[in-house]
Amino acid sequence: MKKKIMIPAAVCFLAISICLVSLAWGAPREQIFRFNLYTNPISLDPALSYDSTSDEVLNGVFEGLVRTSRNGGIEPAMAKSWTVSQDGRTYTFKLRGDAAWSNKQKVKASDFEYAWKRVLNPATSSPHAYMLYYLAGGEAYHNGTLKNASKVGVQAVNDTTLKVTLRSRTPYFLQLAASRAYLPVNPSVVKSNKNWAMSAKSLVGNGSFTLTKWVPDQEIVLSKNRFYPEAKKIHFDQIKMGIINDPVRELAMYKQGQLDWSGPSETNINVFKLDKATKKDVHTYNPASTYYYVFNVTKPPFDNVNIRRALGMAISREMLTHGTPAYAFVPPGIRGAGKTFREEASGAPYFKEDADKARELLKKGMKEEGLSAFPETKLIFNEGHEYISSAVTSMWADNLGIDVYAEVQPWEELLDNRMALNFEIARAGWTADYNDPASFLEMFASWSTDNDSGWHNAEYDSYIRQAQQTGNDAVRMKLYHQAERLLIDQMVIIPVHYFKEFTLQKPYVHGVYKDYSGALVYRDGYLK
């Protein structure tokens, strides 16, 4: 939950908090960039965060060995250079010698070794552990069959040299190394305070900004990290993030000059209803993100594939007017062997919308389950997704003659219920952690901690394992296509749409953008 789960759209929040925040934010100030988060971060511990709201903060206060450039490539960050062995299994990173934590301590190769092994340590309960299975011994250590952490494939040779040994050639490893799971942490800080990531006073980072204020439900403030090695290239003195769960108020603040950037969508601020002056500030992005519904396949009758397929085929996606209709899981923009993964998909779509066929499948599935009537069923979703949920349940009623109750839940409660398999059908979304189909398809492997469907399939696992072990991109993509077809044939999830994102950005804001994954990048931004 690449990854990374989509930022939840908003509902109205307490007026008193809104007033407090808006009063604190006046007219634009020199090199102070202001935007809204909607909700509190889940965690600012890179090992424990699993939501895109947390990422907006983490992207500023932490930095990995490498980072993703605007065009999706890889560029040096804490590592100034690296070499790769002939067999593609060993990476040797040379760290910059002038990198420091925000508490003045030197950033060392051992900080990365500690952080990666901490993610893999089962006692940490990191949702990203599976993303480090690429390291030699990583999966065995996390599963407890390897007790000696020193045998995991990451070793600090000295303060500025990190040696990484992979279990097999991984063509997209540098993309992985730029993701949240591979961020470093300061060992002395983590060991001395279990709550180190919960307040501005105790959080220590190594990024271009440092956390200087965090008032839950009100505001987060980042300030330029003067110990960052490239501090002279950072233009913003401060980043102010409001936590205002009211899209109407957010739009008003943007129009009044109290915000420099806003992330509208059809589920909060409708860009198509903006006045002409505000529409001039609209920017459009197509992030590598998919909106879908997930089934709890361990709970009858959703352990029946015909019933799942019936619900998936009974939705008229074009009528939802959100994003681009989706009939697969991996979105456009994710790379393949030569073209994009979607462009390389061969054959007919995995399924088609067909109300008549859906009714046949539902009837067949209910007969297999011994049901004379469709059982009471609940669809859970988070704030801001009322329209889509209402439309989908209406389509199920009209096309299948079944009643599904839609229940809105707070974002954190929805995530908890999904991970605990305390649901029948749930709203979900996934954004790429790195630019490869593995970022999507590995999450439904039986060993993935992000697999909140309860679905385990040996054939699917085999496709993923084989893909992980080959260095041939064409072969790897073929295996991923087979895995995706199986996932959709089994209708473990109902793909609904690929996201299209809109932002409002003041004309004086430069160098701020959404990257391929939909993450907001403000590191190189400036006001002019």
Explain what you see.
- By secondary structure, this protein is α+β, with helices and mostly antiparallel strands.
- The protein contains 16 helices and 23 strands.
- The strands form seven sheets. Strands 14-18-13-17-15-16 form a six-stranded mixed beta sheet.
- Helix 9 packs antiparallel against helix 11 and helix 15 runs antiparallel to helix 16 (473-489).
- Mean pLDDT is 91; it is low at 1-24.
Summarize the structure.
This protein has about 525 residues and is α+β, with helices and mostly antiparallel strands. About 30% of the residues lie in helices and about 20% in strands. Helix 9 runs antiparallel to helix 11.
**Uncertain ranges:** 1-24
Question: What's the β-strand tally?
Answer: 23
Structural class: alpha+beta
Neighbour order of strands in the largest sheet: 14-18-13-17-15-16
Sheet-strand content, in percent, reads 15-25%
List the defining traits of the structure above:
528 residues
Blueprint (SSEs and pairs):
Elements: H1 15-24, E1 32-36, H2 52-61, E2 66-68, E3 74-76, E4 79-84, E5 90-95, H3 109-120, H4 138-143, E6 154-158, E7 161-165, H5 173-177, H6 187-192, E8 209-215, E9 219-224, E10 238-242, H7 247-255, E11 261-262, H8 276-279, E12 282-285, E13 289-295, H9 305-313, E14 324-325, H10 341-344, H11 355-368, E15 377-382, H12 386-400, E16 404-409, H13 411-419, E17 425-431, H14 438-441, H15 458-469, H16 473-489, E18 493-498, E19 501-505, E20 509-510, E21 513-514, E22 520-521, E23 526-527
Parallel strand pairs: 1-10, 15-16, 15-17
Antiparallel strand pairs: 2-3, 4-5, 5-7, 6-7, 8-9, 9-10, 11-19, 12-19, 13-17, 13-18, 14-18, 20-23, 21-22
Helix pairs in contact: 9-11, 15-16
